[in-house]
Structures are given as C-alpha cells and as structure tokens.
C-alpha cells in the first residue's frame, strides 16, 4: 500500500515552484518521514492500511502542506500573485466602467480578461486543491498576459488617465512572475545560464512581441485590412515555437550554435511587424 503514500507525497511536492531535481529531493525526504510515521503506527498495533491513514492524517491535507512549503521556499510569491490578480481585475473593470461612462458603449470583450485574472487569483489563494503548480501556474500567467491584448485598444501601452500607469505595471509583474516560475533550475543544472537566456529572450519576444503584433494587426483590420494579414502573425509565431523547442533540445549538444540562433528568433518575430511598419515608413519619405 506504499503507493498511497507515494501519491500523497507527490501531490505535496507538486505544490511547489521548485525545479525537478529539488522537487525529487523534497519528495524523497517527505516520503521517508511519512513512512517512518507509518512504521510507528504499525508497531503500535495497527494494520498497514490503518497505519497509512493515520500517517497521512497526522501530516494533513496535501494542498495545505504544499502551500506552506511553497511559502517557505518562495516567500512573497503568493502576495505578488495576489497583487497581480487584483491589479488585473482593477484594470479590466476600470476600463469597462470608464468606457461605459464616457462613450455609453459596453465593451463586453474586455471582461474576457477576467478568465486569466481568475486563474492567477486561484493560485494566489489556493490551499485546498493539490495541482501540479509549476506547470499550471505558468499557463495561468501566460493566459493572463494574452487576455490583456484586447484591452490595449483605447489606452495604448502606457495609455492616459488614471488607468494608464496600471497596464505596464501589470505586464511587468506578470512577466516577472512568469520568469521566476519557468526559470527555476537546480543549482548544478548544466548550461543553466544559457537556458535562462534562451527562455528569457523567447518569453519576452514571443509573448510580449507576439501580443503587441496581434493587437496592431487587429487594429489594422478595424480600418479595413483583410483578415489574411493575421497570417503575418500566425506563421512567424509557429516558426518561433518550433525554433524555441529546437533550441532547448539542441542546447546540450550545440550550446554556442543555439545561443547564436537567438538572432534568428529576433528576425522571425520582427517580421510580424514588417507589413505594418513598411507602409508607414514609406509614407514618411513621400
């Protein structure tokens, strides 16, 4: 019946944002403690099933223990996630109400962003459900970032008025937390610095740049451009995703070549803006 204890401990370890190696070490240490407690219960006269249940009961719920370990290893992570969720909700509802008051137009699409905000809020407050935190938190942060894209209209990046300064703060905080979640490696990981450079460049240019390019193209469609111009974003993003994957896979064998290929990453993502920038640049010289 050791499988029950293994599953229990694994769910605890998965509540942390630590690297795979650190999580494995945590798993082994916790498992040994739980098994010791089980053995003590067996020596006290309980059956193996009863002993395992007693050991699990003594340690407590997986989500609560994992949350405590997460806070101990990554202090203030919960507070930062909570701040991100609150700021995101403030911006979304603030923009919706502002539009409703100023133009008497209900921008319902703005409220779609609450899906991403709610996902971040879940991880900030969750002490009940045991999930693979690192994976799902990274996806929640990406989702929150992408759902902010349609909200850029009317404000621009830095915007105007009281809502203006909130947006760049949200984006920077979102990216910071995403970096801190994705770029957590064990100390002895080979090519650790190179991996961080690759992830940082790709996350920044891929998400921020891709989102900005998508927004610009959507604006162009609003002025009558064909929907086919979205291919200018879709195709480079697919190429970028493939190159990103290849860089991670090939890094152990060809570290210098992979780092050099970041130039190609920049060129691929820069192409997304080219069809928009070129006509504008040409107009400057007319």
TrEMBL record:
Q: Which domain of life is it from?
A: Bacteria
Provide the alphabetized UniProt keywords.
Membrane, Transmembrane, Transmembrane helix
Q: Where does the chain cross the membrane?
A: 80-97, 109-128, 135-152, 158-179, 200-223, 229-250, 257-277
Question: InterPro entries this protein is in?
Answer: Perm_prefix_1
Indicate what this protein is called per its UniProt record.
Uncharacterized protein
Native organism: Salibacterium qingdaonense
